[in-house]
């Protein structure tokens, strides 16, 4: 008989519209709350079976924070007996054991599509996260590589890029590096026309940038630099000025911690690639990276000039203008956040706080890593302004969002702020956040 955990959701809940919507959004706090209210499953049982701290379960159920790491999502799926297809996963191993009768909450057609994939855990461990996501199956290469096949690979790369919205580089690095290696293999041994080779080389450049970003986010600094350099050479070989400029911008971002002047040089070189044909989102991205490099280097005039150029790029964008997928995330909210970050670095809190506050009010908690990072700059700005309690509140919220995210960057940003806050231990709000950080 198959083991049935005490937290298994009954079929009527799995079929409930609100629950299915929450599962689709990976909003597990809603699922936990409904499980307790309508199925009598206590938070303590959920915590035990899902390997989550009891207080964390309660916090999630109140709508505070998100579960973003792949491992925790798998734990929840198994503990609550949520069929994989409801979470964007392949079928869980226990679903295969129930193959003689469709698992709870799964239709017969869904059962036939999903339950025979018995190796999900092994696949996720040995070949990466993408192997666990059926919608990201890589198409087999034809005997002769065509432009159409390269387009399919580029669409796959765009879908994989969405993982970075919710997961940290520690989760995604192997996935993205696997894509780079696959494309490099095609370039070494495939058969194609010169045009197809150029397009495949451009895809290699794009994938290497994404892998480099995951390496940087996950604490692999040397791997990040190597991949960014690889991307620059591939973009140059492909004759893709936009990707070449972006590779320089990535190198600026990575270099900034070690050599601020070199970072500004990289960023200026990236902006020098801009022409009248450069898409507006790419122009905005390159200029905002220059603004950041200038801010960290203590150049307020250069910062303001670059931010103005980035804003003009977005404001003058034509609605019908095609944009590369890798730059479409740059919008007015992202630019406002970068503006606030820059003014925080330049110790101008009266400029930084209003723009960061307004932008973060529009920013979803679903993007836990990024919101935690951006809140850290807001906390920094408040602390510079002498608003210690506000700084503590924002630092505490950043800590909550960063919990479980496979990225080194949020804690790298938050820890120095906590160090500055420790001078105000006489305040209860500060003691509370420092105790939570140490717990």
Describe the structure in your own words:
It is a single chain. The protein has helices spanning 11-14, 17-24, 28-39, 43-50, 54-61, 70-79, 93-97, 108-114, 120-126, 147-161, 163-166, 169-189, 194-217, 221-238, 241-255, 260-271, 280-296, 300-315, 332-345, 349-361, 368-384, 388-402, 409-421, 428-438. The two termini are 40 Å apart. The protein is mainly alpha-helical and 439 residues long. It is globular.
Write the layout of secondary structure elements.
Blueprint lengths: L10 H4 L2 H8 L3 H12 L3 H8 L3 H8 L8 H10 L13 H5 L10 H7 L5 H7 L20 H15 L1 H4 L2 H21 L4 H24 L3 H18 L2 H15 L4 H12 L8 H17 L3 H16 L16 H14 L3 H13 L6 H17 L3 H15 L6 H13 L6 H11 L1
Helix pairs in contact: 3-5, 4-5, 10-13, 12-13, 13-14, 13-15, 14-15, 15-16, 15-17, 16-17, 17-18, 17-19, 18-19, 19-20, 19-21, 20-21, 21-22, 21-23, 22-23, 22-24
What would the average pLDDT be, to the nearest integer?
87
Name the helicity range. 55-70%
Classification by helices and strands: mainly alpha
> What is the molecular shape?
globular
**Tally of DSSP β-strands:** 0
Question: What proportion strand?
Answer: under 5%
> What does the largest sheet look like?
none
Q: Helix segment count? A: 24
Give me the strand/helix succession: HHHHHHHHHHHHHHHHHHHHHHHH
pLDDT below 50 for ≥5 consecutive residues: which ranges? 99-128
Radius of gyration, taken over Cα atoms and rounded to an integer in Å: 23 Å
Distance between the termini: 40 Å
């Amino acid at each position: 008989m198959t083991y049935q955990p005490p937290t298994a959701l009954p079929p009527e809940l799995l079929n409930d519209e609100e629950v299915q919507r929450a599962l689709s959004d990976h909003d597990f706090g809603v699922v936990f709350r409904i499980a307790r209210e309508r199925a009598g499953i206590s938070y303590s049982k959920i915590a035990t079976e899902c390997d989550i701290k009891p207080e964390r379960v309660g916090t999630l159920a109140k709508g505070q924070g998100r579960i973003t790491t792949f491992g925790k999502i798998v734990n929840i799926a198994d503990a609550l007996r949520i069929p994989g297809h409801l979470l964007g996963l392949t079928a869980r191993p226990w679903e295969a054991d129930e193959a003689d009768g469709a698992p709870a909450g799964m239709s017969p057609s869904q059962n036939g599509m999903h339950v025979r994939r018995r190796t999900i855990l092994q696949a996720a461990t040995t070949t990466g996260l993408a192997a666990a996501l059926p919608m990201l199956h890589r198409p087999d290469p034809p005997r002769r590589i065509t432009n159409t096949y390269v387009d399919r690979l580029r669409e796959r790369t765009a879908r994989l890029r969405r993982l970075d919205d919710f997961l940290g580089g520690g989760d995604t690095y192997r996935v993205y590096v696997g894509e780079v290696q696959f494309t490099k293999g095609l370039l070494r041994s495939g058969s194609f026309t010169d045009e197809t080779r150029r397009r495949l080389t451009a895809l290699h450049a794009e994938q290497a940038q994404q892998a480099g970003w995951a390496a940087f986010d996950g604490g692999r600094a040397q791997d990040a630099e190597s991949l960014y350099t690889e991307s620059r050479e591939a973009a140059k070989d492909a004759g893709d000025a936009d990707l070449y400029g972006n590779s320089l911008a990535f190198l600026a971002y990575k270099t900034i911690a070690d050599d601020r002047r070199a970072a500004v040089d990289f960023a200026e070189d990236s902006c020098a690639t801009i022409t009248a044909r450069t898409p507006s989102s790419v122009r905005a991205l390159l200029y905002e990276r220059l603004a950041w490099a200038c801010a960290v280097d203590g150049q307020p005039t250069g910062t303001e000039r670059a931010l103005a150029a980035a804003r003009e790029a977005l404001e003058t964008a034509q609605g019908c203008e095609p944009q590369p997928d890798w730059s479409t995330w740059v919008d007015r909210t992202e630019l406002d956040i970068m503006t606030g970050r820059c003014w925080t670095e330049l110790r101008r809190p009266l400029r930084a706080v209003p723009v960061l506050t307004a932008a973060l009010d529009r920013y979803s908690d679903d993007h836990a890593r990024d919101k935690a990072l951006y809140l850290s700059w807001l906390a920094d700005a408040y602390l510079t302004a002498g608003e210690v309690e506000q700084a503590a509140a924002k630092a505490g919220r950043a800590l909550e969002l960063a919990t479980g995210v496979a990225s080194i960057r949020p804690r790298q940003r938050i820890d120095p702020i906590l160090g500055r806050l420790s001078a105000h231990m006489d305040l209860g709000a500060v003691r509370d956040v420092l105790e939570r950080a140490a717990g």
